[in-house]
């Protein structure tokens, strides 16, 4: 039987309408898994070190065998928006190649939205929890380090089993095989807002 995504019930107290730029319209923290959430591969299986970047080429690394590693196309602008809104960004990955994942984030160069210098992907991440194990542990660590309440966290991940973090109060948005894009990002935000009983007023 196909597994169903958990549905979000209508908020008990109804909705409170806020302006899009009201801080209440945004979670304090957005977390991303890495494999098949930000890039379309398993870094511990599909990438053979060493990895390198050719010059200042944007959003592309290449491994020893010529395999490319890039963020999904709309990911750089999503990260940039989160930074502009001063939202805490976290990486939560259970890869068995944590050092390689960190190295990739440190090498990957992304376009600057504000016309400044290009930025290394790693600079967008305020917190990184990258090691094997249950994602409950990753989120407990994120909470411990940041003090941010779980119900202020929105998490993007492609694996159904990681919905277990919702038991802490985190909102998880399941990422489809096409990866993270603007449409999915907006779906995640809607899901989080619905749980908080918040609706954004569109004039
Ligand atoms: Mg994944």
Could you describe the 3D structure shown?
The chain has 203 residues and is of the alpha/beta class. Helices cover 25% and strands 19% of the residues. It contains five helices and eleven strands. The protein has helices at 43-46, 75-84, 98-107, 135-146, 182-196; strands spanning 16-19, 29-32, 61-62, 68-69, 88-93, 109-110, 119-120, 127-130, 153-157, 171-174, 198-201. The protein is globular. The termini are far apart. The model has no long low-confidence stretch (mean pLDDT 95). The protein binds magnesium ion (MG). Magnesium ion is lined by residues 33, 35-37, 157-159. InterPro entries: HAD-like_sf, HAD_sf, HAD_SF_ppase_IIIC, MDP-1_euk, MDP_1_eu_arc. This is Magnesium-dependent phosphatase-1. It comes from Kwoniella dejecticola CBS 10117.
Outline the secondary-structure elements.
Layout: E1 16-19, E2 29-32, H1 43-46, E3 61-62, E4 68-69, H2 75-84, E5 88-93, H3 98-107, E6 109-110, E7 119-120, E8 127-130, H4 135-146, E9 153-157, E10 171-174, H5 182-196, E11 198-201
Parallel strand pairs: 1-11, 2-5, 2-9, 5-8, 9-10
Antiparallel strand pairs: 3-4, 6-7
Magnesium ion (MG) binds near residues 35 and 37.
């Amino acid at each position: 039987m196909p597994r169903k995504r958990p549905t979000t019930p209508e908020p008990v107290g109804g909705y409170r309408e806020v302006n899009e730029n009201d801080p209440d319209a945004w979670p304090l923290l957005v977390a991303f898994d890495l494999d098949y959430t930000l890039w379309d591969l398993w870094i511990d299986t599909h990438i053979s070190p060493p990895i390198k970047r050719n010059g200042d080429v944007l959003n592309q690394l290449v491994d020893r065998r010529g395999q490319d590693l890039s963020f999904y196309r709309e990911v750089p602008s999503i990260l940039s928006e989160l930074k502009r809104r001063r939202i805490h960004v976290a990486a939560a990955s259970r890869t068995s190649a944590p050092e390689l994942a960190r190295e990739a984030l440190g090498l990957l160069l992304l376009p600057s939205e504000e016309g400044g210098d290009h930025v290394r992907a790693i600079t967008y991440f305020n917190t990184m929890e990258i090691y094997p194990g249950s994602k409950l542990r990753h989120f407990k660590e994120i909470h411990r380090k940041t003090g941010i309440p779980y119900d202020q966290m929105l998490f993007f991940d492609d694996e159904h089993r990681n919905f277990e973090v919702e038991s802490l109060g985190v909102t998880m948005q399941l990422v489809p095989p096409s990866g993270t894009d603007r449409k999915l990002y907006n779906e995640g935000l809607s899901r989080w807002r619905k749980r908080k009983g918040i609706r954004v007023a569109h004039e």
